[in-house]
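[agent] plan:
  1. take the single chain provided in the ticket
  2. run structure prediction with default settings
  3. attach structure tokens to the ticket
  4. add a short note for the reviewer (M.T.)
[agent] executing step 1
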Amino acid sequence: MTGDAPSGQHLWLRRAARATADYASLLLVLLLLVLFFSRQTNAFWSYPTLTNVANQIPPLTLLAVGMTFVLIVAGIDLSVSSVLGLGSAMLGVTMVYWGLPLWLAVPVCLAAGCACGAINGTIAVIWVIPSFIVTLGMMQIARGAAQTLTDSGKEFIGADVLVISAPLPWVGISPAFLIAIAAVLLGELVLHRTVFGRHAIAIGGNEQAARLSGIRTGRIKIAIFAISGTLAALAGVISASKNATADPGAGGGDELYAIAAAVIGGTSLMGGRGSVFCSFLGVLIIAVLHNGLAAMGYEQPYKLVIIGSVIVVAAIIDAYRRRLARTG
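[agent] step 2 finished; step 3 output follows
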């Protein structure tokens, strides 16, 4: 009995050291990128530029938080970008045609996103279908629903929604950024400080063993997909609030950036390991790359090549991490 404590303590210390190393390495990469672009463009290291980056990232941050949970249970959610567009379209419909105020319209949008995610999870769990296939179908369904709601056109909502994304006086950052930060902190707390989070990690590590130990794996996976859909719809609300316009095409391709942010942050594509805070650092790295390359005059094709290369390198690093975890 007395021999178990040191081994348990040793394991905890190893995990803490690994987490600290992950945080430090990502922060170092982020700092080096900021310093590099600051030397290349004089205006990059300035408060207006940094607040502009902060106000751009809330939608992607919310997608990355949900995607981190999904990847941790060894799933994937390709529908988040389309659910984002559906959330944007729903906000326009509920406020323009239904006449609902903002504080009532937002919960309706979130409920729609939650329903999409719950359907994804339920089908994947009950019929044992890979989440890749299920969410690929939902990606088309949600995008088609968004286009149907708005008749495939953009819809002006009204100035009331601008309050979500408008920078706060004297601060420069928007309420949307604060919402995204709150989601990151809450997500990290849930993942590493609650039974739900520990069960999610256990499912991603070995689902069969988790089931045999009494964990209700199906319910947890459905709940995680529902969370992902809800956060995607919230991202759609924030996206619509930027220009006070409901856009059914909003978020196109953002599911790839959400996956990239999580992978850059060290979340394993095989499940069982990840950090919401590290995924947020991945979002910041992608945002700094986007803005820095644009400031240097690189066109979109070059930016895609460079960011894609970063994603591939992050995936290779993830593969080496898994090998070290197995051997260590």
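[agent] step 4 note for reviewer: The first strand starts at residue 155 and ends at 156.
[agent] ticket updated
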